[in-house]
Design goal:
This protein is an all-alpha fold and about 230 residues long. The chain has helices spanning about 5-85, 90-170, 175-230. The longest helix has about 80 residues, at about 90-170. It is rod-shaped.
């Protein structure tokens, strides 16, 4: 196994391991965010209802308190009016008594509505806390989701690069280089062989010329001897 194949196998295994760990968490996180947003919508609706009830109950309680104070004020005015003889004291006391009775009922109504308003306000505060927690959790999950998606994207890009590296090896590029080296070596050997042949041819030519040169010298010597003999030398 070549170095490229070993690198590819290792990186491929790492990429698959990362993807296996990432793909499911992404889907789970997306589903979790959707569920939480549904919970948030329901919680917001409940919070609005409870806040509305708390506000209305508080207004009703304050109105009852105001009416109680008003009836007490009216009872006092009736008594003052009788005191200054503007009306019959007995009638003033009768009406003042009825006003005070109504004041008592309004006080009781205020007590009941005030307790109810406090309960609604307490529920509203608890729901507001839950809504804040859900919002915080959604933000946390959305941040984790962005991180997971970025990791998944990086892992996929790494896998593609490693696949390309593997394809370069399997396409035989290295084998082609080896064959080119062999061909170049063969061409160099052939060139050397032709050079040797040329050297041999030159050597033969020299030998022939040398041999021919020796014969010519012998012939010249023979002719010189014949000439000397003719001349009686």
């Amino acid at each position: 196994m070549s170095i490229f194949q070993r690198i590819f196998k290792f990186a491929q295994a790492e990429s698959h391991a990362v993807l296996d760990k990432i793909e499911d968490p992404i889907k789970l996180t997306e589903q979790g965010i959707r569920d939480l947003k549904n919970d948030l919508q329901a919680a917001m609706s409940s919070l609005a209802d409870v806040k509305s009830m708390a506000i209305n109950t508080r207004k009703q309680a304050e109105a009852a308190k105001s009416r109680a104070a008003e009836y007490e004020k009216k009872a006092m005015l009736l008594l003052q009016k009788a005191q200054f003889e503007d009306m019959n004291m007995a009638e003033a006391e009768r009406l003042a008594t009825m006003a005070l009775e109504e004041k008592g009922r309004q006080d009781e109504e205020f007590t009941r509505l005030n307790a109810e308003a406090e309960q609604h306000e307490k529920m509203s505060a608890q729901l507001q806390s839950n809504v804040n927690k859900i919002k915080s959790t959604i933000t946390k999950y959305e941040n984790e989701l962005r991180t997971l998606k970025a990791r998944a994207k990086t892992a996929q890009a790494t896998r593609k690069v490693n696949e390309q590296i593997a394809k370069v090896d399997t396409s035989g590029t290295v084998a082609m280089l080896e064959r080119m080296k062999e061909k170049v070596a063969a061409d160099e050997s052939l060139a050397a062989a032709y050079a040797d042949l040329a050297a041999d041819n030159n050597s033969l030519e020299n030998e022939i010329d040398a041999a021919l040169g020796s014969t010519a010298k012998t012939d010249a010597q023979d002719k010189l001897a014949a000439l000397k003999a003719k001349m009686g030398m």
